[in-house]
Queue: 2 jobs
Job 1
Amino acid sequence: MKITGYNIRKYTWHMDRALGDANSPGGSGTWQAGSILSIETDEGITGVSLGGNDYVGALFPVIEGQDPRGNIGLWKKMMDFVFKGGNEGEANAAISAIDIALWDLKAKIADQPLWKLLGASEPRTKAYASGIGLNLTDDEIFAFYSRMADRGIDGGKLKVGLDMEADLRRIGIMNECLQRVTSRPMLTIDSNEYWSPKQAIRHISEIEKHFDITWVEEPARRWDYDGLRLVSQNVKAAVATGENINDLGDFYALIANEAIDIVEVGSNATGITGARQVANMAYAFELPVALMNCPGEFMAPLGAALPNHLALEVVDPFREPCFTTDNYIEDGWIHMGDTPGLGLIVDEEKLAAIEVDEVVRPEGVSWPFPRREGAGLYQVPPTPEEVVWK
Ligand SMILES: [Mg+2]
């Protein structure tokens, strides 16, 4: 079997709500752009992944004509290809998407669901709720975590960092909702690198007078292992980080410097191959892994197969405009079916209706999230006007 071609289909749509954090408390608006990468073979079997960008064209000659079943070897060839320029940005996103599509392909060739091919003994992985909602009102926070509690989810993450009084009040709302599932929910907070390490310690210590916090996410800059270690050593909560770093080498620096307690990986850690490497390294240090949010929870098969996986972040704006995934959430777990591969099925009719040749961002859409004024220096609370997104 040989890889013969690839296809990237880009699309735009509107989510049913905006997402917001400490750096963009008003959110990015509801407009979104996405893409689906397909990798084709001479035997008619196609691997798919979400993501994929123009850099795939530069990488494709590396895998063209190769047997897709040698996917880890192909991952190595791609990593070697970007050696000098570095595995960053568009190159990292392209490697990640290709790697995931190759795993999908490999599982389809084996006629197995990916969770089984990866070695999971059960088709499920635990979920936690994440509103990504600094832009949400208290009532909307209540509605979101209530919906998640209805699905049996007993852990939640809240965006914080700009306003202590609001943070305490809103954590209380999340806690109240999740207590419908368990008396002591797993409460976590995320400040998206807005604080300096000392600001983080002061803010988190105050929160910990009122709540038992399981982890604090990105309490300092992603690369600041001294700062992250300082936070870890001075609050009760674990330090979780990793969503904005790329590969094994990046994570090794944090682990070796005792700057990370919960290892967060996602589809962008050079794909499933890279995420497994990071998770296995973490396992050697008795560190749990938590998978980042992903549309349709399409990385759930990976979570099921990691022996140290804690929970996968679940968000619920409308992010599946042209595909379905073979899973559902019940009793706090993501349960997967037996569809071969990732279980990601493209709806050709829906895709055709929203497909674009090139993505053109509408005026006023803020992307990527810029770093907010005052970051690392002083806190700038959101104004009422800023958080209006409807
Ligand atoms: Mg985060």
Note: The mean pLDDT is 96.
Job 2
Amino acid sequence: MTKIIVAATNKGGDGKTKTSILLAEYLTIIKKKRVLAIDLDPQCNFSHKFLDMEIDPVESQGKMPPIHPSYTEEKKINPEWNGRSSIADIFYGESVLPYSTHLNLLDIAPGYAMKLLEAEAVRKSEVRNKVHHQLHLFISDPTLQEAYDIVLIDTAPSKGPLTVSAVKAASHIVIPSQMEQNSIHGIYGMLQLWKQEALQRDKSYPLELIGILPNKIRDVNLHKDLLNELRQAEFIGDYVMEDKLKLRSIYAEFDAEESNSDSIFNLSDKNVAREEAMKVCDFIYKKVFPND
Ligand SMILES: Nc1ncnc2c1ncn2[C@@H]1O[C@H](COP(=O)(O)OP(=O)(O)OP(=O)(O)O)[C@@H](O)[C@H]1O
Ligand SMILES: [Mg+2]
């Protein structure tokens, strides 16, 4: 069965997208897995790393996917289609046509700001059927299961309907967190969401927490102390990952627009940032594929 990894925290800027990007590159470049990236965040940062997203003229600052390369062909079968395909279409009962990327084994179902925001705002009485279960249905499709080894889902900094939908679809969750007080509060919120969902799950389809990934760690007492406290905290401590990502400008540089097709995994294997990212990804990989 296809593994489904979700990066989630309800605090902004903690590294959900960074983790998703690193995993997308690691799994395809290093592990040669077939990966589908899904961007459920209306900010569309994950999409932007792998696709030239466009500004939506209808939603100021909102991003939308570019015209799909197979638009001309597809239009013959489906003349109604406007040529853009995003993961948000699953909330409108429409099909999704993933885009290929510069990485051979990586496809992406990008975000679409306006449509994701609309889905996030669905009325409470309808949210279960229209949003919560849609992603699981989409990923359970046998054609999709056949086409990909792994689905990676990046989420918005919220515990709203879209994140719930991702958690319900997931087989594995990773929670990146900075060692700052607000971020640590956020971890508890996500753990609650994980526990609630895990308890409801059928035994044949468990939801595993990969761990809490300490991110943007600096060599200062505040970070060391908070990390030590977290490692010792009841319940939470066991989930804190041994490896961490330090705050390194090279990580941010690789996320910048102009570095679209660069990957940290193409650097020399002596590079410290690459080595650090590799350790984190190796750990996650072992959790997801314990028998490989
Ligand atoms: N370890 C790191 N070192 C340096 N910069 C980092 C690191 N991790 C993330 N960043 C940068 O910090 C910013 C926020 O990270 P990222 O986008 O991954 O967070 P996020 O949780 O996805 O945020 P949001 O909640 O807004 O979606 C980005 O510009 C990213 O490049
Ligand atoms: Mg993000």
Note: The chain has one domain: 3-41+116-288.
